[in-house]
Design a protein that fits this description.
There is one protein chain. The chain is an all-beta fold and about 90 residues long. It has a domain of about 50 residues. The protein is about 0% helix and about 35% strand. It contains no helices and 8 strands. A two-stranded antiparallel ribbon has the order 1-2. The protein has a two-stranded antiparallel sheet with strand order 3-6. Strands 4-5 form a two-stranded antiparallel sheet. Strand 1 and strand 2 form a beta hairpin. It starts with about 25 loop residues before the first strand and ends with a strand.
């Protein structure tokens, strides 16, 4: 996942980068050189800063024509949520 700030990939090494993952890229996950799976990144992304109004968080973004909204998931990962009613750093919608 692309993210602004926070811990980057390569933490604990000299690399410390967050890859620029774009629609159409294939992302593979492996453990000890054994591929566990891969997926093609879809054309969907957040376009504006999220807004909190009371207990409602609004996320505005783009979903490409080739993406089926019925098969999408929005995940919010933010350690600031620990001090809120969510009480964890991540939530899904």
């Amino acid at each position: 996942m692309n993210h602004p700030g926070g811990v980057c990939w390569g933490n604990g090494t000299s690399l410390k980068v967050t890859p620029d993952i774009l629609p159409g890229d294939v992302v593979s996950i492996s453990f000890a050189a054994a591929v566990a799976g891969d997926t093609t990144v879809q054309d969907a992304y957040v376009t504006e800063k999220s807004v909190i109004t009371g207990s409602t968080l609004t996320v505005t973004g783009h979903i490409g024509a080739g993406v089926d909204p019925a098969f999408t998931e929005q995940r919010i990962a933010n350690p600031d949520l620990l001090a809120t009613a969510v009480a964890r750093k991540g939530c899904r919608t």
